[in-house]
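Design job #97: recover the sequence.
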């Protein structure tokens, strides 16, 4: 058996297959993972092959947006990367006169998201903004998506960010929070193993898996479901449900 199984080719003309960690020299140093132009270029392939349930989470974010969006309000996609959820929400919204605001602090991501947006034929107004979501108040929101982003925010800033989101949501508004989660008990080794198997099944070699893990260590800090739910309640959300989980990745719906 070889170390490197055949890798699925990206089917997207705007992006490439993820080969960032294929070289034995590695492309990023330990703990140095950033969402730069190299990551933006391979991002659709990288996230699809690394995050179990990613496609479902994107699609269902559009469905949830359809349920919770209200006329004359804003929908936010915080840490929007290439705008996959921004566009899913655009096609899910049934309410009138809504505006979707996608925000990311990676200029490379926002630039690339603009190319995808230009190809999209949805009619709901979309604005893309390069900004730090921890310093960007939101207002008149009916839906906020925060998918696989909180895990990259410093732990001491997470509560303040969720409070800022709760403050900007209208009563009955919804936050979609998707995260890599960790576990307190003996479920952890099993979930780690299943996640590894998922990556291997998607064509990542042992070298790629090891180098990516080293690059993202101390950059992506997962927390338990209990910690997430307690903090969401503390931030001002009245109801939190887990609507989806695939291995060690879960998505929550928090209602103000
Ligand atoms: C894993 S990606 C998110 C994926 C995206 N939400 C999706 O569902 O396709 C994390 C994104 O969060 C962005 N990010 C991290 N910290 C941020 C911050 N403080 N402000 C804005 N964006 C941030 C990164 O640039 C990156 O594009």
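Job complete. Output follows.
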């Amino acid at each position: 058996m070889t170390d490197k199984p055949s890798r699925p080719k990206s089917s997207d003309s705007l992006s490439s297959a993820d080969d960032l960690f294929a070289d034995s020299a590695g492309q990023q140093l330990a703990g140095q993972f950033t969402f730069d132009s190299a990551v933006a270029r391979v991002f659709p392939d990288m996230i699809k092959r690394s995050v179990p349930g990613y496609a479902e989470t994107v699609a269902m974010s559009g469905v949830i947006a359809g349920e919770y969006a209200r006329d004359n309000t804003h929908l936010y996609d915080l840490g929007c990367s290439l705008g996959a959820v921004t566009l899913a929400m655009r096609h899910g919204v049934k309410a009138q006169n809504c505006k979707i605001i996608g925000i990311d602090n990676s200029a490379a991501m926002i630039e690339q998201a603009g190319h995808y947006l230009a190809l999209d034929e949805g009619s709901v107004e979309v604005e893309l903004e390069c900004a730090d979501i921890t310093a960007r108040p939101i207002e008149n929101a009916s839906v906020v998506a925060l998918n696989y982003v909180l895990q990259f925010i410093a732990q001491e800033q997470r509560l303040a960010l969720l409070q800022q989101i709760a403050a900007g949501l209208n009563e009955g508004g919804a936050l979609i929070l998707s995260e890599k989660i960790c576990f307190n008990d003996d479920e952890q080794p099993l979930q780690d193993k299943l996640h590894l198997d998922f990556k291997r099944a998607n064509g990542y070699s042992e070298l790629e898996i090891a180098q990516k893990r080293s690059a993202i260590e101390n950059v992506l800090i997962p927390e338990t479901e209990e910690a997430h739910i307690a903090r969401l309640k503390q931030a001002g959300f009245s109801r939190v449900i887990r609507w989806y989980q695939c291995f060690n990745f879960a998505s929550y719906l928090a209602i103000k």
